[in-house]
Amino acid sequence: MKDFTRESLLHCPVHGYIPFTSIVPPGEVSERTLLDNPWLQRLRQIHQLQTAWWVYPSAEHTRFQHVVGAMHMASRTVDALYPSLHEVCHGDVPSRGYVECLARMAALLHDVGHGPFGHFFDAHFLKPHYGLNHEVLGAHIIEHELGELLRGVRECPNTRMADGESLDPAQVATLIMRPKTHDADQHPRWLILLRSLFCGLYTVDNMDFVLRDAYMSGYSSRAYDLDRLLRYSFFSDRGLTIHQKGMNALLKFVQTKSELFRAVYFHRTVRAIDKTLEGLFRDSRELLFPGNPLEHLEDYRGFTEWSLLIDVSRWSKFDDPATRSLGQRWDRLLERQVDWVCVEDRNQTVREGESEQTSVFADENVLEQVLRGKLPGEMRDLPMQIDLPRHIYRPDALAATAGQNFQYSPATGKVYPLTDDQLFKQLPLAHRACRIYLRKDHTSEQASAIGAALDAIVGSRGEDDLTNM
């Protein structure tokens, strides 16, 4: 009989019960130990949806809930795909227990490097000032802060590693890092194939967050057919492959993810909050964190949205005028007083063969310069913010993450690149929105002038149909 005392369950509104190891033999490390580690627990204090929780009141879920869900997705995916992985690698692959433990730990730790406000922190703090992102930080934390614990993990709820196997933290770090061109020769083939479950078109990460974000935001309680998507996925000699019977489920997944970007992640008010936050981060940077997180890991471990928002809420009481002024601006944000409002919203779809770089939407600074040149003279110094959020439907053919997904045709018995599928080819490469924001006290004349100037640059919206049909 299975020893139920060795595992624990948590209940998730998306996946139901999620098991994890709790009691293990002496000298080994349980998954509970990793879950309870401060590096994981800090993710309870970082929202999954960055700033969208200020717009969608029920979307208060955190990175912690997501990574636990991703860990569960890793088990489901390995359960479906390990037999084919073993087959295409001709047996040159670790045990099922090792692969599942590796995938679960990589899924659990893939967001461990995130700072306050997630990807926003990457874009406006880590990258511009230190050339970092949360994946680089996460890989360092995995190898240098959690490495010893990871080496002690020997089992997960479904399986156990073979005798003599020991989890390699470097392989965990490899799975969470976005691949670089020509790095495949540095890793065994089975690991390269497994990495497509972390950085391809559908992954243990996005299969969870699409379901979770759709549910928690109220967008949809059943965003796509996860069971069908996994049932018809397998590894072929080419890579991660989906049977033709699963194509509709995959297309639904891709379309739902793109809808979440348009309706939730890129909501105009969410982006207005981001624009307000940009100015606050720019002016507060030296007060927020002491320096490069790699050199201040202990401080970074305690640096979360909770700690940041508590700190800035005190600044308005400071004696120093500059800090007090910054604190008053942060207070406005905490009271959800947003500085900017969207007055124009246009969209561009980039399809195969089209160049994104030649579009007027390719660069915020260029567009702002051209737009100001089209405004009446007295409005050319009008305070404004330009936002060009971009969502990638599918990787460009030249990207390092491209070429990882394939389709099996039962009619021919052959495996083809997914990009050869006629329905898949209908999907655009990317979608970009163009939003122009003005101060809340703008006039209707100023908004109209912005619209006319944008029309002069990209063309008008066109004529409406003449009949209901």
TrEMBL record:
Residue stretches making up the HD/PDEase domain: 59-219
Matches recorded under SUPFAM superfamilies: HD-domain/PDEase-like
InterPro entries, per the entry: dGTPase-like, HD/PDEase_dom, HD_domain
Family matches, as Gene3D superfamilies: Hypothetical protein af1432
GO terms, molecular function: dGTPase activity
Single GO BP term: dGTP catabolic process
Protein name: HD domain protein
Source species: Posidoniimonas corsicana
